[in-house]
Amino acid sequence: MEKFNIAIDGPAGAGKSTIARLVAEALGFIYIDTGAMYRAVTWSILQKGLEPDQTAEMIQLANSMDIRLMPGPQGQLVFVDGAEVTGVIRTAEVTGNVSRVSSIAEIRSILVAKQKELAQSKGVVMDGRDIGSHVLPDAEVKIFLTASVRIRAERRFKEIQDVQQGITLERLEQEIAERDRMDEQREASPLVKAPDAVLMDTTQMTIPEVVESILELCKTQVSGGT
Ligand code: CDP
Ligand code: CDP
């Protein structure tokens, strides 16, 4: 089968990583979660105790980090300088700081260079915020996944209510809306639908329905695909 690249972008909790992983599995492609890379840098910055105004130190740190993504039994595993950080990059503290860190243009350039390299030999499903618009503008298939903020908060709430004690659905909805706002309004490659991306509103769609419609789209958009 001829290989091609798929870019999946969209706001927080739209289902990007779940869908991207399943689509990659169905096609025998490699899944790359770029959000995990921004989270890994943010985690490292917090570990080092850098203050929000220490931008130069943050850039230096991002430059020196060895971030690796590897497929695991339950999704992608993330390593920083050889140590596994898959779980710790998903804490509320990292989530609360990641949009600030990812608004730093120099940090984006460092990670975008890595992402482009990973997609070089094609056969990649990459999800994030700027993949179709900036990282892989030539991706053969581009999807912009979205859903109402309420349903995205409900989906996330189900995942974290047992882990994050005291969190309410209303609070989570506010946090998600605030992160979307920061991601959409930053100057450096903001969250935006690429003009040639297909918009999919998954508010009323199940996971298998979304996966199926993306696989169908691949068949129609890529000659010789699937
Ligand atoms: O999975 P969730 O929607 O919580 O977010 P994520 O994909 O793990 O991404 C975390 C954050 O990283 C986003 O809110 C963005 O601030 C940033 N990000 C980005 O700026 N560009 C990307 N390509 C991917 C993520
Ligand atoms: O990566 P992103 O933040 O866009 O979302 P995710 O982490 O893949 O999905 C958030 C949650 O929504 C997960 O628990 C998915 O199983 C769920 N989901 C869903 O219930 N229905 C969909 N159509 C898509 C995702």
Give structural notes.
By secondary structure, the chain is α/β, with parallel strands linked by helices. It has a single domain (6-213), classed as P-loop containing nucleotide triphosphate hydrolases (Rossmann fold, 3-Layer(aba) Sandwich), CATH 3.40.50. It has 9 helices and 8 strands. The chain has helices spanning 16-27, 34-47, 55-64, 92-101, 105-118, 131-135, 149-160, 169-185, 207-221, and strands spanning 5-9, 30-33, 67-72, 75-80, 83-84, 124-128, 141-146, 198-201. The strands form 2 sheets. The protein has a 5-stranded parallel sheet with strand order 2-6-1-7-8. Strands 3-4-5 form a 3-stranded antiparallel sheet, with helices on one face. The longest helix has 17 residues, at 169-185. The mean pLDDT is 95. The chain binds cytidine-5'-diphosphate (CDP) (2 copies). One cytidine-5'-diphosphate is lined by residues 12-13, 17, 34-35, 38-39, 98-99, 102, 128-130, 179, 183. One cytidine-5'-diphosphate (CDP) binds next to α2, α4 and α8.
